[in-house]
């Protein structure tokens, strides 16, 4: 049950108010037409608004029982300006060119749209009514869609794309699958052919950092330092590795990182006083730089102290297991 | 980058043949019109020491050297793609000892042919461009290295079809890789060279667990965690032009550019700082009229002798391990005028095969000398 409308100048598909830009349209739609739910989605070529019924505002007066309001939605596509149709060809302020995508659209939805005072023509868009071809065009004939006045601003491929993107997983999956099955895909780094199950898998690790290799290279890089002690190198390596794996990117992450690092490596740190000393020195350094507050230092030292007492009680702490992803 | 140490002059071999051994032509075959780029004996399996393979155009052919200069055709494989032009072939071996032929060329697809059952075993895709050389690890004959125009070297497991390692990236070659070789005893070590005029020595030590894993991998080959090896342990700039052939001779390296010679040198790695080190050129083996690229030398099984062709269809047989190097023989024939791309020495060096640009294969055998 889809209908798509393409408009120009970011005009509202319901009341034809020109909103000047996508942002304006966004505010206009959400404030003036609150009967609908909007999803705003921007691609390189298109700015699309996906409009669906808001279930909470629909009452039984408008929606008959056999219609699931969630299934009723249509798209709003904005065509980018450079391919816009010349104004002279636009007939009688036809800013809106609706295309009925699904012929199974019940008449009452059109009533609904009518009720909300949206597209004036859309009441006639019922494709299963005999006069549907006068203004409405079934999406089943993509070629004819081209001949609809102004429909060139919404190429069928786009509709198809929008449809595939929007459709719920269970509906679009067979088509997506068929498309993905048609050709061979390759891993971007290794250029190895991907098995079908990998193509469909959620995971795409190709852009991720290879931690094993990164660790190796970090060690190698640190090995080159001649004025750094072994413990200092080890400390640097642990921290570099931790920061990379946990994606500690901003200054604001540092307090968390310090505490998490203390928890993760605490058991090992308390067993090596010189390593622990390196860590404390490092914390003081970042405190000097204003990256952590004294409270964080305190927290970290509490964590370490806890491990220390446990370590004294049981020199081989088997009971202390911290979830560690550090290899 | 490496520096050449001063103070010790390289020993240059004399071009006066010692005539220690003499060879004469015993056979000549015209395989086709297209150039033959590679010829190689099967040193992997002692049952097939007299079997050799050639590649030219889209064809891989297997022959057997018989008594009295006879060459018998055993098998011939033709790639379905007419435009394929194989540049290299190497013998490998399955877990159960089935002889495999691994060939690669302009398409960049490596074909693994099961020569025991006469069928295609696997095809490896991954290289982004032509494959210039394939070599087999003699200690683990399921491992092969491929050198490619895409500036990378890949390590494959022909048994499981896995691409284990890719030697490329920050410290990798900056132009086509033309030649690779496994170290004869240090299984972790390989060397590569190419059009960036450098020789790079790589270590797989830190990555060896992945090599072992490739043998027991049960998932899909494409799911294997292929690793990039980005930094070689030594980068040597000893040549000033394309380096098109490299072979280990113990811990030393034989390499060849387009300077009418090939050289023997010692790489000296610095343990503390990978990538740096020095080289010491030990010996030089002159090869006249050998100034075009893609001419490769071959050695007998024990690396006692090396044979290399030249642009004019002549072959130079060098004794490798004497100092100064001595030329055993210079082989020439009035009808052999075409550039010889590669030679193949038999196990004991008594037979030398050469494959030429004009599509011919020549067989030379030793003649008893008084």
Structure description:
The complex is a heterodimer of chains A (327) and B (370). Helix content of chain A is 43%, strand content 9%. Chain A has 12 helices and 5 strands. Chain A has a 5-stranded mixed sheet with strand order 2-3-4-1-5, sandwiched between helices. In chain A, helix 10 runs parallel beside helix 12. The longest helix of chain A is centred in the last third of the chain and has 20 residues. In chain A, 21% of the residues are buried. Chain B has 370 residues and is mainly beta. In chain B, strands 1, 2, 21, 22, 23 and 24 form a 6-stranded mixed sheet that branches. Chain B has a 5-stranded mixed sheet with strand order 12-13-14-15-19, with helices on one face. At the A-B interface, helix 8 of A face loops of B.
Percentage of residues in helical conformation of chain A:
40-55%
Rounded average pLDDT of chain A: 69
Largest interface: which pair?
A-B, 19 and 19 residues
Helical run tally of chain A:
12
Strand order of the largest sheet of chain A: 2-3-4-1-5
For the record, give the distance between the C-alpha atoms at the N and C termini of chain A, rounded to a whole number. Answer: 52 Å
Task: Please provide the count of β strands of chain B.
Answer: 31
Structural class computed from helices and strand pairing of chain A: alpha+beta
| Broad shape of chain B | globular
Report the strand count of chain A: 5
**Main beta sheet of chain A:** 5 strands, mixed
Query: What is Rg of chain B?
Result: 19 Å
Give the proportion of residues in helices of chain B. Answer: under 10%
Strand content of chain A: 5-15%
Q: Give the end-to-end Cα distance of chain B, rounded to a whole number of Å.
A: 50 Å
DSSP helix count of chain B? Answer: 1
Please mark out the parts of chain B with pLDDT under 50 across 5 or more consecutive residues, or reply none.
none
- What oligomeric assembly is this protein in? heterodimer
- Beta-strand share of residues of chain B: over 45%
